[in-house]
Specification:
Layout (H helix, E strand, L loop, with lengths): L1 H24 L9 H10 L42 E3 L3 E3 L6 H17 L4 E5 L7 E5 L10 E5 L6 E4 L2 H9 L3 E3 L16 E4 L5 H19 L6
Antiparallel strand pairs: 1-2, 3-4, 4-5, 5-6, 6-8, 7-8
Helix pairs in contact: 3-5
Length: about 230
């Protein structure tokens, strides 16, 4: 009897240990990097989206019905070739394959800083409200609600970023295989964690991808701030 009990308990303990160390390996994020944070994320996994590549419907009452990424703005968004990167976690939510280099991340950061500098009366840089770590870009007077007007934030560990888009723009990003929905973007009660249009955009790895990602950030700024950005 005792042997049977241990035969059941020990594999379960080993699984929890491995799962917990995998959670810690993702680094800091919006959840405390301790066992309590791990338990919270384990509970939230029960409600995670089964298919993060499937676009959410556009509510009939939403105005405007169309987004920022018109054919003119979306021309730099070429569909990715090959498989999507592998993404794991909820908070942290991280890309673990096809990461960008430190040089790629530096270029992405410079691009975001340039957008903030060119629109200094409307945009500011600060610590991410969602993640509590890393750099975020914020609207000083948002027209659509996010965490303190946050437009996007970057992840130094993998070069990816999170941002919030109009659902029509989110659909384009998903169809181009340039990102995926956050696991908790179910709307309703889950908006206390993330807005419905909250996406991960994969790490840019070259100049072409950086150009596409910068245009997606412009789309996020248009949606949160309510105006198109200056160059």
């Amino acid at each position: 009897m005792d042997f049977t009990k241990y035969a059941l308990i020990l594999p379960a303990l080993f699984f929890v240990y491995k799962d917990y160390t995998s959670f810690l390996a993702l680094g800091p994020g919006g959840t405390p990097s301790n066992f309590l944070g791990y338990l919270c994320i384990t509970l939230l996994r029960l409600f995670a989206l089964r298919n993060p590549y499937l676009p959410a419907p556009i509510p009939a009452v939403l105005r405007p019905q169309s987004g920022y990424l018109t054919p003119q703005h979306a021309k730099s968004l070429t569909k990715c070739s090959g498989d999507r990167p592998r993404v794991v976690g909820i908070a942290p939510h991280r890309q673990i394959t096809q990461k960008g280099t430190s040089a790629n991340f530096s270029e992405l950061s410079q691009s975001i800083e340039a957008l903030a500098a060119a629109n200094a009366s409307r945009l500011i840089l600060g610590t991410s409200c969602f993640e509590k770590h890393g750099t975020g870009l914020f609207s000083v007077d948002p027209v659509n609600r996010t965490c303190d007007g946050e437009i996007c934030h970057t992840h130094p560990s993998d070069g990816s970023l999170h941002l919030t888009l109009h659902p029509a723009d989110a659909r384009i990003v998903l169809e181009k295989c340039l990102g995926e929905r956050h696991p908790l973007t179910r709307g309703g009660w889950f908006t206390r964690f993330v807005p419905p249009g909250f996406l991960m955009v994969y790490a840019p790895r070259n100049k072409e991808e950086l150009k596409a990602v910068t245009e997606i950030i412009r789309a996020a700024a248009w949606w949160i701030d309510g105006q198109s950005l200056e160059d």
